[in-house]
């Protein structure tokens, strides 16, 4: 697979030339030729604004990605819920309580309520439990016998739902409190009369339930507005009370809550673009302790032939003795009784029986253990890198918060500059945090790449390697090189050069990851087409767009023509040259 002759040629100089001071940095654009450049326009820009938009507020707004979702706080949820109740109440000429019961029955879908109601009002009333008039007339009675406790009490001690079945207030309170304490099922509460389907609405709760139960019921009702709504979900971050309303056809499923937590709308796992939800689900299941314990046992142990307990071999010889009370002695290789081993089997500490079985192909268990061992080693390789990038991302978030809360003001004072001049530092750290997240999930993607698709695997590893190398350069610059400017006793003359370098590294790393994300979302299909030749490493700040044109002979050129992205490099699959 000829990658290094073409694609790497342009990117090989990135790290070598970042130390040069006489290079100009372009705006990070024009990394692709006209055919492939359009594809990049639809990619997320990781939340960063291009340099040439900074002085144009209108351009900044226009360049921000249009969100297909709305983050809702508790007050917003209540307001939307009240608006929907009022809308149904007005259109259908119902009370607020009846409108609430209707919406709850139809999962807070206003349009469905209207359609069903105008289609067959009688059927809807019957299924929901909204009675137009009481089925029991008790207006003339002065005393009633409660159908639950059977006490004869004055009529002012009784209450009933829309059906009119009378029960004493004490029994009603016990019935309601028990239902509320049992959970959200209280929102579907019906009349205590076994044969009656009348709904018990919020008015009965307000009238009969104690304050604590009223509050619980209100929370259940509020949460049902999100949990029963197909277009809304709660933010899965621990302790976050925000919800997200997602517009159908919104496109990107990555959600960023007001609490700064990012998650996937489909599976509610943390944002995992460019890896699909199915792969993430398999990977998280693979990471479960139980599943990997099984692999470890298969890798490191065998079962005792007598008691079937797993045994780990912790010494060199093949003579195994199971723990008491079993105490069975057997051969580690062939799993037969140790007493049967002797001269006939090749000696006490060698086993010709096992060798013979190997030649006959009768050691399936051993093959399974070897396969499990190889699978475990492959998993460990990808998991360690997945976990390392996760911890690096968490550390980068801590560094970003510390930079914003402590070091930015200090840096302004030491280097005699303004906060606006230090925007590149915040952008660099945000880029690092985002790239660590993307890189983490690429290892889950790589684990499930089919082993027989060698070309795709090589192409994936190349793109991943280029992106990771760029990220490491940026992370090192933001973490290590910045420190000397923060701890300096006074302004340093090369601080402006550092800012320029950091800006260039941020732009280059961003483009590396855009290439990687686009390739993975396309299923690495470009590896078998000429289009993949048009994905190249971003132009390094050491080789910017030439001021004199595109012949690469302007300032910072190496003295030879620098090929544009999508020129005519060799095909990735062309192994004949």
UniProtKB/TrEMBL annotation:
<feature type="compositionally biased region" description="Acidic residues">
    <location>
        <begin position="1"/>
        <end position="56"/>
    </location>
</feature>
<comment type="function">
    <text>Might act as an E3 ubiquitin-protein ligase, or as part of E3 complex, which accepts ubiquitin from specific E2 ubiquitin-conjugating enzymes and then transfers it to substrates.</text>
</comment>
<dbReference type="InterPro" id="IPR045840">
    <property type="entry name" value="Ariadne"/>
</dbReference>
<dbReference type="GO" id="GO:0016567">
    <property type="term" value="P:protein ubiquitination"/>
</dbReference>
<feature type="region of interest" description="Disordered">
    <location>
        <begin position="1"/>
        <end position="57"/>
    </location>
</feature>
<feature type="compositionally biased region" description="Low complexity">
    <location>
        <begin position="537"/>
        <end position="550"/>
    </location>
</feature>
<feature type="domain" description="RING-type">
    <location>
        <begin position="142"/>
        <end position="355"/>
    </location>
</feature>
<keyword id="KW-0862">Zinc</keyword>
<dbReference type="InterPro" id="IPR048962">
    <property type="entry name" value="ARIH1-like_UBL"/>
</dbReference>
<protein>
    <recommendedName>
        <fullName>RBR-type E3 ubiquitin transferase</fullName>
        <ecNumber>2.3.2.31</ecNumber>
    </recommendedName>
</protein>
<dbReference type="InterPro" id="IPR031127">
    <property type="entry name" value="E3_UB_ligase_RBR"/>
</dbReference>
<dbReference type="GO" id="GO:0008270">
    <property type="term" value="F:zinc ion binding"/>
</dbReference>
<dbReference type="InterPro" id="IPR013083">
    <property type="entry name" value="Znf_RING/FYVE/PHD"/>
</dbReference>
<dbReference type="Pfam" id="PF21235">
    <property type="entry name" value="UBA_ARI1"/>
</dbReference>
<dbReference type="InterPro" id="IPR044066">
    <property type="entry name" value="TRIAD_supradom"/>
</dbReference>
<dbReference type="GO" id="GO:0061630">
    <property type="term" value="F:ubiquitin protein ligase activity"/>
</dbReference>
<dbReference type="InterPro" id="IPR001841">
    <property type="entry name" value="Znf_RING"/>
</dbReference>
<keyword id="KW-0677">Repeat</keyword>
<keyword id="KW-0863">Zinc-finger</keyword>
<comment type="pathway">
    <text>Protein modification; protein ubiquitination.</text>
</comment>
<dbReference type="Pfam" id="PF19422">
    <property type="entry name" value="Ariadne"/>
</dbReference>
<dbReference type="InterPro" id="IPR002867">
    <property type="entry name" value="IBR_dom"/>
</dbReference>
<dbReference type="Pfam" id="PF01485">
    <property type="entry name" value="IBR"/>
</dbReference>
<dbReference type="Pfam" id="PF22191">
    <property type="entry name" value="IBR_1"/>
</dbReference>
<comment type="similarity">
    <text>Belongs to the RBR family. Ariadne subfamily.</text>
</comment>
<feature type="region of interest" description="Disordered">
    <location>
        <begin position="534"/>
        <end position="577"/>
    </location>
</feature>
<keyword id="KW-0833">Ubl conjugation pathway</keyword>
<keyword id="KW-0808">Transferase</keyword>
<feature type="domain" description="RING-type">
    <location>
        <begin position="146"/>
        <end position="190"/>
    </location>
</feature>
<keyword id="KW-0479">Metal-binding</keyword>
């Amino acid at each position: 697979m000829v990658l290094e002759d073409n694609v790497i040629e342009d990117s090989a100089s990135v790290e070598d030339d970042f130390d040069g001071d006489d290079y100009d940095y372009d705006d990070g654009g024009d990394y692709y030729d006209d055919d492939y450049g359009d594809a990049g326009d639809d990619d997320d820009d990781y939340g960063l604004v291009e340099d040439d938009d900074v002085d144009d507020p209108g351009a900044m707004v226009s360049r921000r990605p249009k969100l297909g979702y709305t983050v809702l706080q508790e007050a917003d949820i209540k307001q939307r819920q009240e608006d929907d109740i009022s809308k149904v109440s007005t259109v259908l000429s119902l009370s607020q309580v009846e409108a609430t019961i209707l919406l709850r029955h139809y999962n807070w879908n206003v349009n469905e309520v209207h359609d069903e109601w105008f289609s067959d009002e009688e059927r809807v009333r019957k299924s929901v439990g909204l009675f137009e008039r009481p089925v029991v007339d008790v207006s003339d009675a002065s005393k009633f016998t409660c159908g639950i406790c059977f006490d004869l009490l004055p009529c002012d001690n009784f209450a009933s739902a829309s059906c009119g079945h009378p029960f004493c207030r004490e029994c009603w309170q016990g019935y309601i409190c028990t239902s509320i304490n049992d959970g959200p099922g209280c929102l579907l509460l019906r009349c205590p009369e076994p044969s009656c389907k009348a709904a018990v609405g919020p008015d009965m709760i307000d009238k009969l339930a104690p304050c604590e139960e009223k509050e619980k019921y209100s929370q259940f009702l509020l949460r049902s507005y999100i949990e029963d709504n197909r277009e809304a979900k709660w933010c899965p971050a621990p302790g976050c009370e925000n919800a997200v309303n997602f517009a159908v056809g919104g496109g990107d499923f990555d959600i960023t809550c007001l609490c700064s937590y990012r998650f996937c709308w489909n599976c509610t796992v943390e944002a995992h673009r460019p890896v699909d939800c199915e792969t993430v689900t398999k990977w998280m299941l693979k990471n479960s302790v139980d599943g990997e314990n099984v692999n470890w046992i298969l890798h490191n142990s065998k079962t005792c032939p007598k008691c079937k307990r797993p045994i780990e071999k912790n010494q060199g010889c093949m003579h195994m003795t199971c723990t008491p009370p079993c105490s069975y002695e057997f051969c580690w290789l062939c799993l037969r009784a140790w007493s049967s081993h002797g001269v006939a089997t090749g000696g006490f500490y060698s086993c010709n029986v096992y060798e013979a079985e190997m030649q006959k192909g009768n050691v399936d268990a051993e093959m399974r253990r070897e396969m499990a061992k190889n699978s475990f080693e492959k998993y460990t390789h990808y998991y360690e890198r997945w976990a390392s990038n996760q911890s690096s991302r968490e550390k980068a978030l801590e560094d970003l918060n510390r930079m914003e809360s402590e070091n930015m003001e200090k840096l302004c004072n030491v280097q005699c500059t303004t906060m606006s001049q230090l925007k590149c530092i915040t952008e660099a750290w945000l880029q690092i945090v985002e790239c660590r997240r993307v890189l983490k999930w690429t290892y889950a993607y790589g684990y499930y790449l089919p082993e027989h698709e060698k070309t795709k695997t090589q192409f994936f590893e190349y793109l991943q390697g280029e992106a990771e190398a760029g990220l490491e350069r940026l992370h090192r610059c933001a973490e290590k090189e910045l420190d000397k400017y923060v701890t300096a006793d006074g302004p340093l003359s090369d601080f402006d050069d550092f800012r320029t370098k950091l800006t260039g590294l941020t732009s280059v790393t961003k483009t590396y990851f855009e290439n990687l994300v686009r390739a993975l979302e396309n299923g690495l299909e470009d590896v078998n087409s000429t289009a993949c030749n048009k994905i190249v490493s971003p132009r390094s700040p050491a080789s910017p767009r030439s001021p004199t044109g595109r012949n690469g002979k302007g300032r910072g050129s190496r003295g030879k023509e620098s090929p544009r992205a999508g020129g005519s490099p060799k095909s990735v699959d062309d192994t004949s040259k």
